[in-house]
Amino acid sequence: MEQFLQQMVNGISLGSIYALIALGYTMVYGIIKLINFAHGDVYMIGAYVGFAVTTYANLGFFPALIISMASCAVLGIVVERIAYKPLRNSSRIAVLITAIGVSLLLEYVMMFFVGAEVRSYPKLLSDKAINLGNIVINMQQVYIVVTSVVLMIILQFIVNKTKIGKSMRAVSADKDAAQLMGIKVDKTISFTFAIGSALAGAGGVLVGIYYNSIDPLMGVMPGLKAFVAAVFGGIGSIPGAMIGGLSIGVMETLVSGYGNSMYRDAAVFAFLIIILILKPSGLLGKNTKEKV
Amino acid sequence: MSLLSVEKLTKSFGGLTAVSNVNMYVEKGELVGLIGPNGAGKTTLFNLLTGVYVPTTGSIKLDLNGSVKELGGLKPYNVTKAGLARTFQNIRLFKDLTVMDNIRIAMHQNIDYKLPAAFLRFNKFYKEEERMLEEADKLLDIFHLSNKKGELAKNLPYGEQRHLEIIRALATKPSILLLDEPAAGMNPNETKNLTDTIAQIRKEFDLTVMLIEHDMSLVMKICERIYVLDYGMMIASGIPSEVRANKRVIEAYLGEDVSDASNKKS
Amino acid sequence: MKVLTKKNIMILIAIVITYVVVQVLISTGIIDSFYEITIATICINIILAVSLNLVTGFTGQFSLGHAGFMSIGAYVCAIINLQMNSTTGLLIGIVSGAISAAVVGIIIGIPTLRLKGDYLAIATLGMAEIIRVIFLNMEITNGAAGLNGIPRFTNWLWLFFFTTASILLINNFINSSQGRACISIREDEIAAEAMGINTTRYKVMAFAVGAFFAGVAGALYSSYFYFIKPNIFGFQKSVDILVIVVLGGMGSVTGSVIAAILLAVLTTFLQSYSEVRMIVYALLLVVIMLFRPQGLMGTKEISDMFKFGKKSSKVK
């Protein structure tokens, strides 16, 4: 039982990072129906920005988090403007291939400049442990969960209570109708990319701290898993992405804890395929069918 | 038994009943019209007949010379195999393929060679391919499209695209042809052309035809019997003059449309 | 006899000439062992690209897991060939590898091919990852270290034979009624069903045929490069194959062949700069999608060009 609770604690802190990344996937998919493969790499860049400002400018955790989020927001907008916007009326396959291209581009341009080697992250947060009975909670884990929760609350506020949030919901429901109603679609899409990428940037810094290591390909696997999380929760649904992220995090730690950690990634993908086949719309997603 | 008999057919989507307790039959060789106001459930009924939707309750029976087959719940391709072919309200040709390929794809279910012959080009492959080309040529000849067999479907003028859809449906060798608004978007001249075509294919292929149509004058002129749907229910049926005189029909639908149509004519 | 048409005789002559010319260049040492590797890569990539093109370009089913099928062919062939150290062993290995890949293709295809577009892409990616993790954990595949010292019987003759056979067979399939059924799925799935085509069946068929030939390519890879490990067949490899298909044109066999040759040459030149190579690949993908989404050839084949030439000469 104690071991189980311990795994849950680890799973929730990992899961809240997945949730942060999954939110970006789900928001972008909701608005332009694109699996933004480059999203995982935005998160990698976020981790590197955090690394740079803490190592070379000696900034603390919060300034690093903010700077990293801001840089990723800008990166998200640039990627959208250059690579995705010209393809808005192309086939879905064309946009998806472009996204894969952008993803590779970010990875290898980064590798070209910073090298392929793994770097260790500076210690930004105390790793003091809190003991609750036999369960150990790391202060870092507390920070990760608290930061994620605060960011998600802010996101919920933006989406549900502000004018730009209303535009986002309108564009994702029906882009053409929103345009006719005078909503600036391009601006709204850029804003969505900015917010999603900022969350990924925050996720990058948190992961850097949690695993204490970063490399240019670190975004690939977590990116894919966060996408699985978004699909599980119901792609396009913000609460779904949060639930999905936490579930995938917990599932992964349970598989490593009780099963074989080598099969951890395979388990996540097997889970994805089962969901896609049994309930492709996910937990909270909407079902759509083509009209004949 | 009639060629096609529909009994107590119902389809609901969640709380909405799109087609409700519909009874209907089509005799061999008939030309039957299905009319009704927008949203009456005409296309839904077609989709039920052709396997796109699975009926909530009720049955659809096809009687081919005594062998009766239940169509309700079959997949669309099995319905087509059973002998019902259709066209679509908004044309669904294989746009980027040639006219010939469009027809040959529809002939696929009747080919007589298997995968090994396809890979290794046994003699049977060549024989069958030749037969297909000949049959397709014959069909194209009837519709005067022979000179366009190499064109991409999307490059045909609108009226010819509608015709090609009908040819494609015929290439599956159906017993019943279902036409979903075949005259939609056509000018009077093209509509006249279409009417002739339908008459011609009935004669040449010994075919039973059922069509949905908005153009009242067309339906009244060519259909031998008419069914009227309103809010998913079959409210009337009969020969055109009966339907025209039916009070419920006038109330539900013709009341405005018929006078509209006659106004336009006068 | 239909088989001995003028066109077929021309094709046969072209095939023989290509084989003899390269064989002479190899025997005389003009093509040294370094360039021979490039030629092997070209052959294997042609088989991979043409088979993926069948699935993605012709049938319209976006697969990101082609490397998974390749790995099955590679491992099955390697294991058999390690047991039976002979050319017969290699031949049995290639056939078994291809059949195993096709069987897995059917098993994977039946549930996942109900998905469409992006979802299918992700599901196939996941399947390939699962296959990789399984090879990573099996004893017979020697885990992450992989299999080494696989007997190397594959030479230019083997490569050329299997590449040509793959192209011809896939081309025959595409130009058959079954192939047209596959193409109709790409064009309009609903209309295809209404025309009596069992779309699930033909999607799985295309997937299985694609997997079969990916298995052939994998088998040749393991034999020629005599060393395989699971990480060779990761997501990256699937993307490499996709780049060839997209660059050549989705729906053009000729395009895949040309693109496989172009990219292999490019890779040879960029060999010592692997990051630059990946940057070039990435830029290629983005730039093609932005400026020429239909790729080099679109859906045109080399035979269409000859036809076009004939037509215009008639007009004169």
Kindly describe this structure.
- The complex is a heterotrimer of chains A (292), B (266) and C (316).
- Chain A is 73% helix and 4% strand.
- Chain A is mainly α.
- Chain A has one domain (11-220).
- In chain A, the strands form two sheets. In chain A, strands 1-4 form a two-stranded antiparallel ribbon. Chain A has a two-stranded antiparallel ribbon with strand order 2-3.
- In chain A, helix 9 runs parallel beside helix 11 (264-278) and helix 10 crosses helix 11 (264-278).
- Chain A is globular, with a radius of gyration of 19 Å.
- In chain A, 52% of the residues are buried.
- The mean pLDDT of chain A is 89.
- Chain B folds into two domains: 1-83 and 174-266, P-loop containing nucleotide triphosphate hydrolases (Rossmann fold, 3-Layer(aba) Sandwich), CATH 3.40.50; 95-173, no CATH class.
- Chain B contains ten helices and ten strands.
- A six-stranded mixed sheet of chain B has the order 6-7-8-3-9-10, with helices on both faces. A four-stranded antiparallel sheet of chain B has the order 2-1-4-5, covered by helices on one side.
- In chain B, strand 9 and strand 10 form a beta hairpin.
- Chain C has a domain at 47-240.
- In chain C, strands 1-2 form a two-stranded antiparallel ribbon.
- In chain C, helix 6 (156-174) packs antiparallel against helix 9 (199-225).
- The longest helix of chain C has 27 residues, at 199-225.
- The two termini of chain C are 32 Å apart.
- Chains in contact: A-C, B-C.
- Chain B binds chain C through residues 50-52, 75-77, 80-81, 85-86, 88, 92-97, 101, 104-109, 111, 113, 115, 117-121, 123, 125-126, 128-129, 132, 168-169, 171-172, and chain C through 2-3, 169, 172-173, 176-181, 183-184, 187-188, 190-199, 205, 299.
